[in-house]
Amino acid sequence: MSQTYGRIVVEATGAPEVMKWVEEPVPQPGPSEIRVRNEAIGVDYIDTQIRAGQLPATLPTGLGFAGVGTVESVGNEVSHVSPGDRVAYMYFSPGSYAEQRVVPADRVVKLPDQSIPADIAAGALFRGLTAWYLANRLRPIGKGDVALVHAAAGGVGLILTQWLAHLGVIVVGTVDSEEKVAALREYGCPHPVLMPQEDFVAKVKEVSGGRGAAIVYESIGVATFDRSLDCARRFGLVASYGWPSGDPGEVSLMTLRTKGSLFVTRPTVTQYTAEAEDFQAGAAALFKLVKDGTIRIKVGNSYPLREAAKAHTDIVAGRTLGSVVLIP
Description:
7-stranded mixed sheet; alpha/beta; Quinone Oxidoreductase, Chain A, domain 1
């Protein structure tokens, strides 16, 4: 076995080209750690923000939080997986853009289907856990409720749309191309909205019989946030979990009062899976639905690990569809 492994590091934030490939000694796991040889690595929008300096990070830093691979070695306190097992992990210290990674054992789950393709499992985990908490942990939502999902053909959006449909929710989903409209229909969203040609506020009102959405899943930011508030029904919830177009900024309490005593939250997957038992529960629920076919994972874009810069460029430009992965 090679005594070194390759990984991507960022020593100074900036354009995608700041990502550097380095070779380092193979790390060994501590007593409660696991060393995984990556087969596929999830790429998420937050990675581009860390690389660009839009989110704080201690430099130099790795990138990536989730991966899928084979267990190479385990610490002497680890009992739930063994060398040779195929596993998925999510660990909130960036560094998954690598051929191998050592992670805490409680952030690792054995894949219930050991034959699942690595790209599918990696495309599912980070984005699927985001969809899990959005659909199941914010507030009860179910049969007959209407939800608005922005960027519904993205990696989180496609999984979230399917999860909501599984719960009986009627989903209105926004996209920005005809190709993504077709993808939404293929993945079970009955009410796609092509922006900017179509008015998502009007569509939500139409679909909900004028009441509005029980939850608005706001993942665009300043470009849509104010009008997203117009989509929520009385006592509705607006969950702002991403803002590629910019931070929406302050929200007036008077506005929330006037628009129907609305609730607004800025949730993060790091908070909702901070406890190991929540991570394990979310991962188990996700992979169960993937295994039985309730949720299909679309990996629209796959890149060699060394071409992570191109993956970042395409994500920021909106050229990706579904989940994005890197292959070592």
